[in-house]
Request: fold
Amino acid sequence: MPLRFNSCPHCNQRIVFKIEENDINSSKYPAPVYILHKSKLCGKISTFYVDSFLRVSYKELEKKSGAIKTLETTD
Reply:
């Protein structure tokens, strides 16, 4: 289960989340996945797009369609 480090597109705080292959729809890349930033100061959901190696390609502020799972940050 790879850990991914990135920043929240809403508040720019550092976030960490775990992602696995079954968390995404692997029939289309970049594959969207929803990330819930569990910080008390933020608490917002963003859409992150990952490649076949589960690396973040880009992110969107809004919750876009197509993701099959919402992952929560671990920090």
Remarks:
- The beta strands are 3-7, 14-18, 31-36, 45-50, 56-60, 70-72.
- The first strand starts at residue 3 and ends at 7.
